[in-house]
Specification:
423 residues, alpha+beta, four-stranded antiparallel sheet, 41% helix, globular
Length: 423
């Protein structure tokens, strides 16, 4: 049989025509299989939800007291790919956490399992209070940043709420998604939050700032002034992880409510039940009359609330007029109050904050999220990004060398809120 030379990488083989034909088919099959693995993610699932993380430049720690808040959705977040299951089963995998999740959507949520699947069960819990759920989903979820303080839990909950609604032909308006996801986190997960996180994630727009009144639920997107200086958002992850349920987050909420109770009692006004007591319902003039009488720690919590209300008002005006310098300063002032009045922040976060205050090109910033561990965020001039990252990293690790392997810097921009995308 005639033999021919076939050139393969690095070596020359002499094989029969039939052998080389089979080899070619085999290699083609391997290449095709590998290609299928690479693109299977987009082929395997019918639906894809992108739910962004969020940052809040002004309006820290006040949403649970029905205050005023601002925020952005950002261009990093959570992706959920899924198919609908007719048998009512929910089967989920995570590319971020270990283990699988499986439960029936038609049955009530049982006791929490202290597992990442609790967020899917929480979404089911809140939706079942309003709608009949018959169909489940099969899917995989993945986060894009390993960072605390960006409301990843709220982003995950919103993704699940949207997915379960889609599977069961339920049409939800964006603010309904906000309410349902917030209720799931409050009543099932056990975090006494307000609406800030969910609102930024569901309602955010890349070309504007979300302004939300957590008392009336009125909100609007304030378009960016064309005269405003360019900015990007720096996220400086301390290296510390956190769980809000196990932090002092809930304690601070109770302290704010206790401050409100003190003011009502000192002015002989009827007390409301704790769950219906909010600082927003008490005029600042009442606080000024009673602050000396109440324990100092409660007075500091109330001082943060009233001063943050003023800062948000001023910040909205600064944003509308394109004054990034003032907007940034107010964000710095917010963080000062978080440290001294709300009394949150770890030594690591405070160190990052103090360093970034001194760096050229940083307009402003504060702790992100609850501010107990997690990250700091900063609004920065893009021209200074490289120097800011280099200098902040150097100075922070000089103080905390133990975080050399876990300290991280990310750069993000405002983005649109949670949405369905092409699979």
């Amino acid at each position: 049989m005639e033999k021919k030379a076939y050139l393969w990488p690095r070596r020359r083989y002499f094989r029969s025509e039939e052998h080389n034909k089979n080899a070619f088919l085999f290699c083609s099959s391997l290449a095709y299989s590998y290609l299928c693995i690479l693109i299977s993610h987009s082929m395997e699932y019918q639906y894809h939800i992108y739910s962004p993380y969020r940052v809040c430049p002004l309006g820290a720690h006040v949403d649970h007291q029905h205050g005023l808040v601002t925020g952005f959705a950002i261009n990093k977040g959570v992706d959920l790919w899924f198919n609908v299951r007719e048998d009512g089963m929910v089967n989920l995998q995570s590319r971020t956490f270990e283990g699988d999740v499986s439960f029936e959507i038609t049955k009530p949520s049982q006791v929490k399992e202290q597992h990442w699947g609790d967020y899917a069960r929480g979404a089911k819990y809140a939706l079942r209070k309003r709608f009949e759920l018959k169909r489940g989903i099969e899917g995989v979820i993945q986060g894009s940043l390993p960072v605390g303080g960006l409301s990843s839990s709220a982003a995950v909950l919103i993704a699940y709420v949207m997915a379960f609604a889609k599977a069961n032909d339920i049409t939800l308006q964006p603010f309904e998604v906000v309410k349902i996801a917030s209720e799931a986190e409050r009543e099932y997960i056990g975090l006494n939050n307000g609406l800030l996180d969910q609102a930024c994630i569901a309602l955010g727009k890349k070309d504007g700032l979300l302004f939300l009144d957590c008392d009336s639920d009125e909100w609007r997107i304030i378009k960016r002034n064309p005269d405003m200086a360019e900015f990007e958002i720096g996220i400086f992850f301390s290296g510390l992880t956190r769980s809000l349920v196990n932090s002092d987050y809930n304690l601070r909420v109770f302290e704010c409510k206790t401050a409100a109770w003190n003011m009502l009692a000192y002015t002989d006004q009827p007390l409301r039940t704790f769950d219906k007591t909010f600082l927003r319902d008490i005029p600042k003039a009442t606080f000024e009359k009673t602050r000396i009488a109440m324990p100092a720690r409660f007075a500091r919590r109330a001082e943060h609330f009233y001063s943050e209300y003023r800062r948000v008002r001023q910040g909205v005006t600064a944003w509308e007029t394109g004054n990034m310098k003032l907007f940034g300063k107010l964000s710095f002032d917010s963080c000062e109050s978080s440290i001294h009045n709300y009394e949150c922040g770890s030594p690591e976060l405070i160190a990052i904050y103090e360093i970034m205050r001194e760096l050229p090109g940083v307009y402003g910033g504060r702790f992100s999220g609850a501010g107990f561990k997690g990250a700091c965020i900063a609004l920065v001039d893009p021209a200074y990004k490289e120097n800011i990252e280099k200098e902040l990293t150097r100075r922070y690790l000089e103080q905390f060398p133990e975080y050399e392997k876990t300290f991280q810097v990310f750069w993000v921009k405002p983005d649109d809120g949670a949405r369905f995308q092409a699979p």
